[in-house]
Amino acid sequence: MATQSVVGTKNRAGQVVTDAWKMMHEAERTPCFFTGSEVIKEAIRRANCDVMIAYPITPQSEAAALIGELFAEGFIGDYFRGESEFAVMSQCAGAAFGGARVFTTTAGPGTMRAMENFPMWAGARLPIQMIVTCRGINSPLSIQPDTLEISYLLNTGMLVWHAETAQDFYDWILKGYMVSEEPDVHLPLALCCDGFFVTHTKDVVNLTPADMCLPPYDPYRSPVPCMDMECPPVRMMRDPFVMKSNYISYATHASWQQEVWAAVERSRKHAIRWLDGLIEVDKPDADILIVSSGTAVSQGREAQALLEEDGIEVGIVKIKVLRPWPGDEIREATKHAKHIIVPEFNVTGWLAKEIRATIPNADRVYAGPHVCGGMTMPPEVIAADIKKHLGIKSESLAGRGS
Amino acid sequence: MSKERIKIAAEMFEIMPSEYQDLVDRATYGKEGRGWKDIGTSKELIEEHSLCAGCPESMAFRYILASLPAPEDTVMVGSTGCTSLVFPHVGVHNIHSLFGNQNAIASGLKRALSVRFPGQVKDVVVLAGDGATVDIGLDMTLQAWFRQEKFTTICFDNELYANTGGQESGLMQKGFVAKMAPVGKTFEKVKLPEIARESGCHYVVNCTVSKPNLVEKVIKNAIHVAREIGPTYLQLYTPCILEIGKNSMEGLQEMRDSEKPTERFAYKEYVSDEAKELLTELAAKEKERKAAAKKQLAEKQLAGKA
Questions:
Q1: By CB neighbour count within 10 A (0-12 exposed, 13-18 middle, 19+ buried), where does B244 fall?
Q2: A270 touches B82 (CB < 8 A)
């Protein structure tokens, strides 16, 4: 198709359109020391995006503004600031209906304000990519990291991935388009990270060459017609189903919802290929496993090192993809574990609930520790909770009253 | 879109639905000077609708679709309401997504089409009810105008929420007793045409759809101005005969009564200087085209006689 025939040509910014697999896996990488926001910009520089729509909300404002610089430099077809997240997500939908590769970013209350759009995006099969730099959504006002908003995205029909590091972020933004634009998927992607921890800290990230970019989006490789009047205006249906109370109407709506979730499932094989699996496992034979996603995994690794000093072996399961849910992988990875610890940056422990619903002998799952409202998660807290769970006495931690 | 795109391979022609055969043979895609007079003699871009019998919205839909200057390159954006029952029958691409976000959808759509088809005509036309335009979607209606987005916004003003059963809306008249306004609406009809003018619209008209030639004129003007200059707004009275206690045959009279000089739908227009210039230019061209066509016809007739 068109994606192959354009390889080797130049895009609007003079970058060479490169086979995506080669670009991501074979092209030379250059290390740089950037903030997460700068990394988002660098990924989008190479993503051959048509339209980006921005709105300020901490902690994604910097990334959204940096992409404006890319527009000024000619890397993006169009860019503007919308009036609210609800409007922005609708503007993104309009651009995607019109056949554009679309990118946007949001966070916390913005995600919640825009929520009505997300099942619409999925139902309309719009492969928009949205970065979610998670932050608190509750009142009183908080701008600090908190992953509660991810739980609201899980049942929208969007693909939901949770990046741990800036390197994940860089690679997954580019790979994300390749997965979500597959004709048998063609769904929006919420690429989540923990705000501030990833967006505002600097890290070494290996970048692909700046003169290479992804193949352009081909809107005609789609399960639904592109709304550009370049294909016949099919009459969708004899009667609109919206108001009908009859079996055919119900069946039509039901089958389309089922199809959206079947498309989420079909993304599995593509995500496995591009991300090298939906989960990543370190020491699966350990009796104790820390299973988590996002930066809670990084803190888990630190706790793993602390416990190793005490002679306690702990394994790590990093969940990269939340939708589609890697149920089989998690069952396999945890089959030997006696204790499963799920640290999370939110108050409700939604990830632990998902894991409990997935594995046999769910009483092995210890939901916690939970930190929220912007609190950090010191590895000592994870280590202490694990010891407590094992019945090992540990030194008291300041301020915990234990 | 080239009309070639909708042509049917000769071998397949017979098995296609008759509506599609009609669309290929008798639609007015690409016809210069198309307008409401094509109704009845060519294939319309609207199939049978599912509105109430005698609903003035159905007249408005037919006139508007017959008047689009370039339907083969027009994408329409709707919203939830009675209009969303009609759009699935319409022969141009159209988008329904949510309730009230139509001008946001159209903003993204128009920009995407401009990126993908630079220098080509791709008209975007929003058509939504007054609840969508003025109440739930007012923010996005106005913001699209502030940003000078180049598309036309048409509001079917029936002065209430018709599809949900006749509740109060911002464009309802003061004092009208309706659902959710049990003692009568307590505030004035929102003056959106005036707000549109102040918000940067270059062509604004407030009228009814009682006269098809007038609808044709304002639709063409609004779309041409939006294509070349910036946002345009049409507020068209399409009374909900059901909710104001009228019969199927009474919609036209209701519109005629409401467009009298002292009434709320007396013809009102605002045209920016830029738009005036453009419309004068277009009118001159149209005059030339008609004169040339007339001359050609006369010559043809003369040649026939000879």
A1: middle
A2: no
pLDDT digits (tens, 9 = 90+) for B10-25: 888 899 888 788 888 8
How many domains does chain A fold into? 2
Mutate to test the interface with B, among A12, A97, A128 (most CBs of B within 10 A): A97
Residue A236 resides in a domain: no
User: pLDDT-based confidence at A79, cuts 50/70/90?
Assistant: very high
Q: What is the chain A residue with the closest CA to B72?
A: A229
CA-atom Rg of chain A in angstroms:
22
The verdict on B135 and B282 lying in the same domain is no
Where residue B219 sits, what CATH number does that domain have? 3.40.50.970
Contact A322, A151 (CB under 8 A): no
Query: pLDDT tens-digit profile of B139-153?
Result: 999 999 999 999 999
DSSP B1-36: --GGGG---GGGGGGS-HHHHHHHHHB-TT-TT--G
Where are the alpha helices (H) located in A334-378, listed in sequence order?
A: 350-356
The single-letter code of the amino acid at A177 is Y
Taking the alpha carbons at both ends of chain B, their separation in whole angstroms is: 40
Instruction: Decide if pLDDT at A241 tops 90.
Output: no
d(CA A267, CA A121): 16
Residue type, A206: N
Region of residue A401 (left: phi > 0; alpha: psi -120 to 50; beta: else): left
Output phi, psi for A192, to 5 deg. Answer: -100, 150
- Rounded-to-integer distance, Cα A10 and Cα A312, Å: 55
Which chain B residues are within 8 Å of A117, Cβ to Cβ? 97-98, 101
Among candidates B25, B23, B24, B69, which has minimal Cα distance to B45? B23
* Statement to judge: residues B256 and B205 lie in one domain: yes
Query: Structural domain of residue A306, as residue ranges?
Result: 280-390
pLDDT digits (tens, 9 = 90+) for B255-278: 999 999 999 999 999 999 999 999
Place of tokens 């609109």: A240
Does a structural domain hold residue A240? no
Three-state DSSP state, B101: coil
Query: Measured between CB atoms, does B83 come within 8 Å of chain A?
Result: no
Range of the domain at B280: 273-306
| Shared-domain flag, residues B48 and B120 | yes
ipTM entry = 0.94
Alpha-helical segments (H) within chain B = 18-26, 56-67, 83-86, 102-116, 130, 138-146, 192-198, 212-228, 251-258, 273-305
By Cβ distance, the residue of B73, B101, B115 closest to A78 is B115
Residue A402's pLDDT is what? 44
With a pLDDT cut of 90, the percent of chain A lying above it is 85
Summarize pLDDT for B158-212 with one digit per residue, the tens. Answer: 999 999 999 999 999 999 999 999 999 999 999 999 999 999 999 999 999 999 9
Q: What's this model's pTM, rounded to 2 decimal places?
A: 0.95
